Amino acid sequence: MTPLASYLLVAALVFAIGLAGALVRRNAILVLIGIELMLNAANLNFIAFWRYGPHPEALTGMMFAIFSIAVAAAEAAVGLGLVIAIYRHAQTTDLDKMNRMKG
Q1: Residue 65, CB half-sphere, CA atoms under 13 Å: how many?
Q2: Could you count the other beta carbons within 10 Å of the beta carbon of residue 45?
Q3: Which of 20, 21, 76, 95 is deepest in the core (most CB within 10 A)?
Q4: Residue 86: which residues within 8 A CB-CB, separation 6 or more?
């Protein structure tokens, strides 16, 4: 197995764990953790394709990964802010019990 295939396999496993965590869990904070795992798998793919690509000296994969990390940090900050605001009103972080947005 080539090193690129090994990185892609690990990234696929991390993405699958994050997707399962985001779809199965009912706690809003655990769903956010699952989304972060999926974003980390994408970052691992960016770095692997950059490193084993035709021009690794170009630093394009590194720039994509840094941009993705910045977006993930903003997503985490906004998501946790929303979870805290909803918790103050509903007194729960269970996604099934948060039904105020329903008509």
Answers
A1: 16
A2: 21
A3: 21
A4: 28, 93, 98
Domains and CATH numbers, the chain: 3-90 (1.10.287.3510)
**Structural tokens at position 103:** 């008509």
33 Cβ contact list (under 8 Å, min separation 6): 21
The per-residue DSSP string of 20-61 comes to HHHHH--BHHHHHHHHHHHHHHHHHHHHHHHHTSS-GGG-HH
One digit per residue, pLDDT tens: the chain, 103 residues? 899 999 999 999 999 999 999 999 888 889 999 999 999 999 999 999 999 988 888 888 889 889 989 998 998 899 899 888 888 888 888 887 777 665 4
Q: What is the CA radius of gyration of the chain?
A: 17
Are 95 and 28 spatial neighbours (Cβ–Cβ below 8 Å)? yes
* The model's pTM: 0.84
Candidates 23, 27, 62; CA nearest to 45 is 62
